[in-house]
Amino acid sequence: MFKARIEVTLKKKILDPQGKAIESSLRNLGFAKLSGVRTGKNIDMSVDEQDVQTATTLVHSACTRLLANPVTEEYEFELFDETGKTVVQFSTQHTGDLKGTGKS
Amino acid sequence: MTGRVGVVVFPGSNCDRDAYNAFGTVLNQKVKFLWHKDTSLDGVDVVVLPGGFSYGDYLRSGAIARFSPIMSEVVKFARDGGLVLGICNGFQVLVEAGLLPGALLRNANLKFVCKQVYLRTETTATPFSSGLSIGQVLKVPIAHGDGNYYADEATLKSLQDNDQIVFRYSTANGEITAESNPNGSILNIAGIVNKNRNVLGMMPHPERASEQILGSAAGVMVLKSVIESLN
Hints:
heterodimer, A: alpha+beta, Mth169, Chain: A, 5 strands, elongated, B: Rossmann fold
């Protein structure tokens, strides 16, 4: 059994109007040194698999089929074991391909 | 000039009855509702994916509706050349289902925009716009928060090269300006067809502009084109 935390964000080249609105509010509050605000969403779930590779494939498949829209979004995810230790980190950023450390 | 029109009802659809009224009462066609859990299109000639907020727009607009049982039939129907009209949320479902290219992002100004807009007809070589003329301006309402059409450069070029852009937001005189763009859509795009020209997605609501008492009857020309193209 693993826990997965998936983060879905808009691709860098796509305007994030929510991030811009937050940034302008921060600016109004005097946070002049905070910039480049981008938003996204977190999706947490349990993965009922024993094998880390199988669990990784399953989560990746959920991301590509439903959780992220490949036209506009990129995603990364982490898998945690029962002790809360990170066992896998994956990211589609920069390449759009599956890249990961895949250590178990 | 008759056809059988199927209006898909998802949980959260709210323009299904407007579409039913426009096709059924105004255009005197046979219309039936198709529940999202149905697994047959029941022999209809045209499928309408109506506006609304299917599944509460959770995750992304249209993302969950595209996996409704009826959608695999709609995809098959579309791939076989059947006419599919996606309006507003229906357009969002069509891009999520991969039947149309691109995506619909949050409106650039972050506001839900509900108002009458003007659309300029860009092509008449589709079953949805064959009754219009190029450059003809239609007054039709919009009501959406996620209508900002986006496509990457290669997709946009392909849309232009294949004459797939059907409607663009314009002024009442048909000028394409930044001010007439209500949501930040790239190139003011309001509606597109697929390469085979049998699937149209548009954010504005032609079915809500089907009778003068509603403020405009211009939208009914789009629906009428669909029915006339069946014959």
